[in-house]
Amino acid sequence: MKKKVFYTLVMLLVAAFTAGKVVAQEVPHVYINPGHGGHDSDDRNVVLPPFAQGDTLGFWESNSNMWKGFALKEILTKKGYQTSISRISNTTADDLPLSTIVYLSNHSGADVFYSIHSNASGSGGATLVNFPMGFYRGYTGQPVIPRAADLLGALAPYIIDNESTVWSSPNYAIYGDWTFRPEWGTQGYGVLRGNNIPAILDEGSFHDYYPEAYRLINHEYCWVEGWSFSLGADAYFGRLEQFGQGMVTGTIRDDRILRTDIARMLGADKRLPVNQAVAQLIDSDGNVIDEYQCDTIRNGIYLFKYVEPGTYTVKVTHPKYFEQTKEVEVAANAKTYLNFDLKRVRDTPPVVVNYSPVWSEGDAPVPCNTPIVLEFNWDMDTESVEQAFEIEPAVQGHFVWEDTNYRMIFTPDDAYDVNTHYTVTLKKTAMHGGGTPMEEDFTLQFSTQDRSHINKLALFPDEGDAVHYKAGAYVEFRSDSLLNSKDLYTHFHVYDADGNALEFNKRNIKNNKKGDDYGYIRISLLKALVPDADYTLQVDKEVADTMGLHLQAPLTVNFKAVDASARAGEAIVIDEFESSEGFAVTESESAGGSLSANSDHLFGSKSLQVDYTFADDEPHVLTVTTAQPESSMLQTSASSGFVATDKVGIHVMGDMSYNRLNLLFADEQGETHEVPVGDITFHGWRYVELSLESLPAEKKYRFAGISLTKNATVMGRSGALRLDNLVKQSPVGVTDVAVNTSVKVMPNPASHYVVATADGYITGVELLNGAGQVLVRNASNYVNVADVPAGVYFVRVYTSGSITTHKVVVAH
Amino acid sequence: MKHLLLSMMCCCALLAGAQQVNVVSTRSLGAAIGEPAYYPVLDASGSRLLFAAGERYGLKLYDFGTGKVTPVSEERCAGIDARFDHSGNVYYVTQSLNENNLIYRSGYCYHVASAESELVLEPQHGAMNYAVGTQGVAMRGPRKNYASARNIGTAVDVEGSELLITVNGKLNRYSPVPSHAGYLWPSLSPDGTKVAFCAAGSGIIVTDLKGNVLARLGNYEMPCWYNNDYVVAQNATDDGHQFTSSQLLLLKADGSWRHELTEPYSMAMQPTTATGKIVYTTIDGQLCVMEISIND
Questions:
Q1: What is the pLDDT of residues A187-212, one digit of tens each?
Q2: Interface probe, candidates B83, B101, B144, B159, chain A, greatest A C-beta count within 10 A
Q3: Which CATH number fits domain A23-241: 3.20.20.70, 3.40.50.720, 3.40.630.40, 1.10.1020.10?
Q4: Do residues A670 and A645 touch, judged by C-beta distance below 8 A?
Q5: Tell me, what's the ipTM?
Q6: What is the pLDDT of residues A226-266, one digit of tens each?
Q7: What's the CA angle centered on A529, arms A524 and A533, to 5 degrees?
Q8: Which of B76, B102, B238 sits opposite A97 (nearest CB)?
Q9: Between B101, B128, B284, which is nearest A185 by CB?
Q10: Which residues does chain B have within 8 Å of residue A42's beta carbon, measured at their own beta carbons?
């Protein structure tokens, strides 16, 4: 009997032990992989105030992933699961390599694998993207391990039903990692690769959607995601009915006030989360079961964990808000969301506490773009205020609200009328955010100045202008007041005939500065224009001065690109301006200047630069004279001077001074005559042709220099212009080869010298290339071509009575 | 002059002590295998190779002598952790799901001679690991175990953060270094005197058979003994989502020296070694055979 009892007891013990072991072993085993780790280079830090970059208390994906993972492990353990987790700290050492994580998962005996992450759009908060995504290994719809798709499908509803966040898409996006990352081929996500159990990687939300990043810093928000994962696991393993507690969570926000710390937000996220609001969970007997105070990190999240099913009241309080209570039904093993939109305590009627412009009769008039600013004692109901706003005479304008609707700014769309008296009335129907109207109307008045827009002083290119085609051509706009230089160049556009925008050289932008006499911006084109092509310059209306006044209308001008040197071959060069020698400046107290040779040239190797300064805006004159006019061989002998029927041309590099340039011609009696070239209204090289018909007839002249006359505006008090070849229009162009003449050149072909013969006296010979550029010149009857490359050239022969051109071949 | 002499002597001493490693040859097995292959395992003689075939990770056997590929198991993931035993038979684990999505694992022995698989450990829910000893194989399940011999000789295995060392059939558990996540990739040196394994978070550790730490080889993965003095390992980096580099290293077992067998961007991984032969795969499953020479 004793033996029987003994055996029975042994058998019962074995049975009980075995049964217990089986039950213990038959629970699901979940492997948890909180992604990333270590606050290091493969981690993700979103820098948000009040946390500095690198502050480990701020948003790091490794932090929120870990808190989610810890929560999941805690909850699953409470639910009777077996769990493994790949890291329990946030160190680089604990940030395990991908192969290691997969091996640990494979050898853990787990039934499923969760890799927990959050996502990023990479836009740095610039895009409004926030939705959950999940991945399994394989192509979308074709998972390598089929049950992985079921695992993800079980999780998705519990992630997307998050009512504390604001999603940009209503769906949980499910992808195979090979489909989502085709550039990786079948490499896929490292923790899914080689993982031999149903494994998924969840990107729960977008952490570079900044309101979400603030939420993800909150541990309780992360706990809720862990709870969501646990529900997904329960659904997958058929255990939804096996846990008896629930939870309540939500977000507490202001019902009206908008948050201003983040530029781009979705839906309810635009409203201010209420820091440090206190939420209490109260049972049906009035007992406070739990209490939670929101953190100070701008998320408004509250949470009550492990709540017994039943009916509760959640009461939310905050010193600056009206108390709010809501009833809630908590279900077992489910998610219960209850968001609160608190009403701010506003216990007095709204009044205007500050305003501008502050103006009284007799005060100076205000600028015509002066914004009307009203500051209130409460955050205002913007719609009622805008409806209550009146301005007389009526002005089209727009409203901007600042300081969470405490400040209203009305700005005219264009400008107020000049010299006009305005009256602004805010009717007492304007209400604050709590719905209480003002007790009386508010009015203000002001008068405007006599100027409502900026005025164009000058523009280059202007309509019909010719612009030398070389890269770096200037575009310049001048106004009668200093321009606001911030991004000013973006309001200027040059288009070719096909409508393609030309690029500016952003490193060569010159703007006006404080103290300048007028406003200006000078920018240069990055690339060369195409000679003879047409272009358009557009200037936006938004070009504004430092007071905010802008153009009354946009400007559009058409101009043409030219080669300013193209005409040179058709004329006799009178002066090449290769050196400042032989020229002298005649200075006075009101006009000074200097001369130099400049390497910026059209012909030869130099140009003559004339730097000048005028004392004021009176019509002072600076004169540059040729000190030794006889020094020019061509002028004195080849061209034999000028007569009134001649035409001359000069190449001028302008400085847009609007000063007048004149050529000086001296007659045989030594009297000097001015022939205007024109106002220097342009930048860059330009060929200017002019007739000498204003000179007294029947006389001979020689070129005697130039003069510069100050214009009557504030422009052009100082500057520099350059001169290159002064030419006299030739009766024969380089392509007009002489045929019937006594002038001969030989030999042809030539290898060393080209020699000219004529019936008369030969004063000079030039060798020109096909472009008309003078390559060799000699004040005799020959030119040496020994060093000239072989090719076809033209020889121009000057005699006392003629100029002839001859085609020659140079051969060596 | 004295300094110069001393410097020259030091240099000579260093040169005398330096190892020169040459990669004699590297050839691809891609044509012979004909599909992406992962988790290669060489047998002790280096003449046969197990691998996980394609994305199903089915288990296949490649014979270097005949160039023939033999399917061992079509079961999904059977090739991920297969082993040869001392006699050349193959042990592997398969999985099945019950109605509640719990995974049941079964142990099999593939008898090479008969080309048949035998169920040696019935389906169990939970982890199934095994130790391949010098005289037999022991498979451990949550409820039942299997041993091919009463005394499996000397064997090493890991379980959680414990190193399991069996000597003459007697099992001892050691935890020579702390590791929350656990130990991985145990490997017994050819002479049966040393163990290399990876401790998650601490890298590769070399111990004697009593669990005494002999050396720490660095934060690398998948150690396998090239010979009694050298270990081949994987050195991979990632961005938290995907591999950014992976190479093979040759490490001196005393931790004094390392040599890069492949470039970081070779994406070489999962090495296995036997009798001086190194087989590895690449990120896209190209099996390669490498032979090296070491001049000590």
A1: 889 999 999 999 999 999 999 999 99
A2: B101
A3: 3.40.630.40
A4: no
A5: 0.92
A6: 999 999 999 999 999 999 999 999 999 999 888 888 988 99
A7: 135
A8: B238
A9: B284
A10: 238-240
